[in-house]
Design goal:
The protein is mainly alpha-helical. The protein folds into four domains: about 60 residues, no CATH class; about 70 residues, no CATH class; about 80 residues, Orthogonal Bundle (DNA polymerase, domain 1); about 170 residues, hpI Integrase, Chain A (Orthogonal Bundle). It contains 16 helices and six strands. The strands form two sheets. A three-stranded antiparallel β-sheet has the order 1-2-3. Strands 4-5-6 form a three-stranded antiparallel β-sheet, with helices on one face. It starts with 7 loop residues before the first strand and ends in an 8-residue tail after the last helix.
Length: about 425
């Protein structure tokens, strides 16, 4: 492929333009012009740089299109072969390379009446140039042509999302937003135009005000769309494979801080609806995540007669991971938790299309938490940290602690058995006291 000069950015009348110098041998095809340029449509240098790659590709495509047919160039160098069609016929018959080599290495006839050997030198020179163009032509023929019909970001993203690659509406919306952000950054380019530089540029762009985890997640959504493109045959390989983002990008994720004993007491002293008090009581005595507790049904309260344990059954629930599929003992302080009832335990919190209710529940409970602390790292999820700390302080082994809170392998992992028995978990939980309940 031809090596063209690198493009540059030039500001003119408040807008940035992408500029490329036209090689001297191609200027005849552009009425003698020395440069090609195209507006980025922006006066912001950062935006212009992000659009430069796409526009550069378009300018290089114009230069490519101006190049004469390589078969005509071969014919010109050989001098007498004919037009491009004749060159193609010779190639199809397998004769072309031999003819080119015969020109490059043609021997002098040694005619004493023609001592001038300049003619044979011209044949050699033409054969050498024809051989160079021929090899370049063969390389270009061997490269698969880029599919442009269904391989642009907008089309690929739409088809990918139409397959419903994620199980929940929330995740689908996150993926859609990430793909829209990526397209906004790159423009609606063809998939094959995305390279490692594009990916790192996108990560830097969104990394200005996002956490490391969020950056990884957004890049991951785009990577999975490109995986889909490979499966559909739009791409030979996924350019995202092997990409390692700059570890300095993004903000460090801040862990939540447990509430103090005084804050816990103040939290439960507040006047609140019975459903809010019950939900908070579950969170502090079980270490459940908010979306687990708020989605409990009364049918989830079960009794294991053989072990004499009342427990919350999360084995069949919609959960964060397999470790969350577990059985959690009910602490004696939750005197209202009994078997025999049916329906949602907290119908006051409406469920969305994914069957989740975390948003409404969080809004209600955070109002209560903010009444006792304005620390930005003290939230409803802090109660989970309180519970784990209490188990740790009571000397409960880490394996038991993790099984109760859903950090272990869970009750359905099947690889290492079912973990600590319900009785062991019950004994661990009953070591804890909650006087403010």
């Amino acid at each position: 492929m031809p090596e063209y000069p690198a493009t540059t950015l030039s500001r003119n009348k408040g807008k940035y333009y992408v500029v490329v110098t036209i090689p001297s041998d191609l200027r005849q095809y552009f009425n003698g012009q020395k440069q090609l340029k195209r507006s980025t449509g922006t006066s912001d240098l950062g935006d212009a740089k992000r659009r430069q790659h796409r526009i550069s590709t378009e300018l290089y495509a114009r230069l490519d299109a101006s190049q004469p047919d390589m078969r005509d160039k071969i014919s010109d160098f050989l001098g007498w072969i004919g037009d491009a069609n004749e060159i193609q016929r010779l190639e199809d018959n397998g004769d072309l390379e031999g003819i080119i080599m015969s020109h490059k290495y043609m021997e002098d006839t040694g005619d004493p009446d023609d001592p001038d050997d300049s003619c044979i030198d011209l044949v050699h020179e033409g054969g050498e140039k024809a051989l160079e163009v021929y090899r370049e032509w063969k390389v270009k023929q061997a490269q698969p042509s880029a599919r442009l019909d269904s391989s642009r970001l907008s089309q690929a993203s739409a088809e990918y999302l139409s397959t419903t690659p994620y199980n929940t509406l929330k995740t689908m919306q996150e993926a859609k937003h990430a793909l829209e952000q990526f397209q906004s950054f790159t423009g609606d380019v063809a998939l094959y135009e995305v390279d490692a530089l594009t990916i790192h540029g996108f990560a830097e762009h969104i990394g200005k005000d996002k956490s490391k985890k969020t950056i990884q997640k957004k890049v991951g959504y785009v990577r999975r769309m490109f995986d889909h493109g490979v499966r559909k045959g739009w791409l030979a390989t996924n350019v995202f494979f092997g990409i390692k983002l700059d570890p300095k990008l993004g903000k460090e994720t801040k862990s939540f801080i447990p509430l103090t004993q005084e804050e816990l007491e103040a939290l439960f002293k507040q006047a609140m609806g019975p459903h809010l008090r019950c939900l908070l009581s579950i969170l502090i005595t079980t270490g459940m995540r908010l979306d687990e507790g708020a989605l409990l049904d009364w049918e989830d309260v079960k009794y294991d007669k053989s072990q004499d344990v009342l427990y919350f059954d999360r084995v069949g629930a919609k959960v964060k991971n397999r470790g969350s599929l577990r059985k959690v003992p009910v602490h004696p302080a939750l005197t209202w938790a009994k078997t025999g009832r049916t329906g949602a335990m907290f119908p006051e919190f409406p469920r969305d299309r994914d069957g989740k209710t975390q948003g409404p529940a969080s809004k209600e409970l955070m109002r209560l938490v903010r009444n006792v602390t304005d620390h930005d790292r003290k939230v409803v999820h802090s109660l989970r940290g309180n519970f784990k700390d209490m188990l740790r302080d009571a000397g409960v082994p880490k394996e038991v602690n993790d099984f109760i809170t859903g950090h272990g392998s869970g009750d359905v992992a099947g690889k290492y058995g079912e973990g600590p028995s319900l009785r062991v978990r019950k004994e661990a939980v009953e070591q804890l006291s909650f006087p403010y309940l």
